[in-house]
Amino acid sequence: MNPGTVSLPTRWALVSALSAALFGLLALLVTARHGTPWALDRSLHLWSVRHRPPVLLALARAITATGTGPVPYLCAVTAGLVVGMGAGRGAWGRLSPVVGALGFLLLVQGMRYAVLFAVSRPRPPAGGWATHAHGFAFPSGHTSTSATAAGLLAWALWRTATPAAARAGWCVLACWAVAVGLTRGYLGVHWPSDVLGGWLYALTWLAAATAWAARTYRTDRPAPPGPRSSTVP
Questions:
Q1: Which residues of 166-186 are buried (b: 16+ CB within 10 A; e: fewer)?
Q2: Which residue, 11, 12, 16, is CA-closest to 1?
Q3: Residue range 7-35: average pLDDT?
Q4: Cβ distance 207 to 13 under 8 Å?
Q5: Rounded Cα gap, residues 42 and 32, in angstroms
Q6: Are 130 and 51 in contact (CB under 8 A)?
Q7: What is the phi-psi region of residue 35: left when phi exceeds 0, alpha when psi lies from -120 to 50, beta otherwise?
Q8: What pTM was computed for the model?
Q9: Helices (DSSP H) in 139-221: which residue ranges?
């Protein structure tokens, strides 16, 4: 099949399906092992415990703190406000993206808790923790929450920013989401496979939402705001 003939919604739907399949497989493998980590999980965990200079430790704690609490929800509200302000369709038209963004984040969170308790994977030994943690380990909550929040902000850029600004913003958001996930393993509160599971989980939902949005708006991306020149370069 010629890739050019595949519509944008279809491509994102395929990404969502692949991510869901990989996440499901990883969850089944973790469950089948009763949460027992793989050799790579153990080796990376031990490396992180043994390589924690004070500066990196403080930086990791600061970054990981942005993956939970009010920050992701503020990101969702900000994304909704940015899209709503550009809608220009009355009070509800400006408010509905905020409700949608928050509702999406809450839905992703709720389903994650269902998976979390279904898998019931124990965390690494508490002696290696360098930050507070509680509950089960798979998938990593900080990882999936920050990635989902980053995806919502990326959606706001897709709807409102110029292509160059959107690409720059996407790079920053991707770096933040990846950094939060890496700190969870570095601080010793998650196995690396928990972090991988968090990324796959978030990608599944974000790709599905992107497929829906692309089909709803029937365009690859909206025209950037601002006046356009009629001159064709």
A1: beebbeebeebbbbbbbbbbb
A2: 11
A3: 95
A4: yes
A5: 18
A6: no
A7: left
A8: 0.89
A9: 141-160, 163-186, 192-217
